[in-house]
Specification:
InterPro entries: NAD(P)-bd_dom_sf. The protein is of the alpha/beta class. It has two helices and five strands, in the order βββαβαβ. It has one domain: 3-Layer(aba) Sandwich (Rossmann fold).
């Protein structure tokens, strides 16, 4: 089990935030979702039908997350 110990010595869930939620993010999520001690959320241009919280503002996702996954295609 992966977990995080905060500065007060308490163990919390590791919070993963996805910027974008296409095929790449979905594959990472599918691989990690069964691990105990993890929670997930995402920010994307549009809301997806997935069982994790959606943030309408990127700043909210950054505040939520311990780990950020950048999962968007490069733009020209």
């Amino acid at each position: 089990m992966l977990s995080q110990v905060n500065f007060r010595g308490k163990s919390d869930k590791m919070k993963h935030g996805f910027i974008g939620f296409g095929n790449l993010a979905r594959a990472i999520y599918e691989g990690l979702k069964e691990e105990e001690g993890m929670s997930f959320a995402y920010f994307a241009r549009s809301r997806k039908e997935v069982p994790i919280p959606f943030y309408e503002k990127l700043e909210q996702l950054v505040h939520f997350s311990d780990v950020l996954w950048l999962a968007v295609k490069p733009q020209d």
